[in-house]
Amino acid sequence: MPYSLSFALKPIRTLPVSAGVPHRAPHALFYHWLEAAEPKLAQFVHDQADPKPFTVSPLTADGDERFRFRVTLLEDQYWPYIQQGMKAERTIRADDKILALDGEPQVEHRTCIEIAQAASARWEIVLCFDSPTSFKSREMTYPLPDPMLVFASYRARWDAFVPPELHIDDAWMEWLAQSVAVSRFELASQVVDLGKYQQIGCVGKVQYAVVARGPEADAGRGPLNALADYAYFCGTGHKTTQGMGQTRRLERWEPDKSPPQRQPVA
Question: In terms of pTM, does the model score above 0.90?
Fold first, then answer.
C-alpha cells in the first residue's frame, strides 16, 4: 500500500444527448468495478468505510480527443478487485461521449514503510493542489489550505491504514500547530459541479515552512515530510473520492512557467 493507477481513455461513440455530471464519471466507474468483483465489498466501502480507502481524480481532457483520470488505493487488498472489475466494465459516459479505457493503467506502488523510511528532513515543503481542495471545519466548507487542516487530513488517513507501529501520536499535532506555517502561496478558487450541488475549493501551490528551531523542531520533521509524500496517494481535505483534493509534492518552489493545467471536462 498505497497504489496510484493512471488511466487513459479514448472516445468510441458520440451520443445525441448529454447526460450526467462528467466530473463524477470516474467515481461511478470505481464503484462499478468493485460491484462487479465483490458486491458486498462495494456496499461496505460505499456505506460504511470511513475514511474511504481510495481517491478518484476528475476526468481531464488530454488533447487529441484523449482523456485521463487517476485512482489511488490506500489498502493493498483492493487492487485485485479493481483488476477483476476492469474486465467487466471498460467504458464510462462523460457528457455526450462514451469513453473506453485505452490500454492498461500506469501503476505506481509504494508501501507506507517505504514512505516513512525514505522521508527527508526538509524544513520547507511545497504542495500543489491540482484539483479544488477544501475542508469540512465546524460544519462549514473551508477552502483555504491551513497547515493544521492539511496535515491533519493526511495524518487521519495515514493512521487509518498503516500498521500501528507507524502511527503518528497526538503530541505531533501539537508540534505541528506550534512549528509549521504558510510561507508562500499562489492560489485561486475554483467551483466543482457535483450534480446536486456545487463545491468551492482552492487550486495552486503552497509552501509550508518549519519556523521553530532546535531539537523539538527536528523531531517533527520526519513525520511532516512522510505525510507530504503520502499526499500524492491520499489526497487532501474532503470529497477526495469525487475528484477533489488531488495533490502533488513539488521538489522546490519555482515560478510557474509550465503550460496551463489540463482542465476537468465541463
Answer: yes
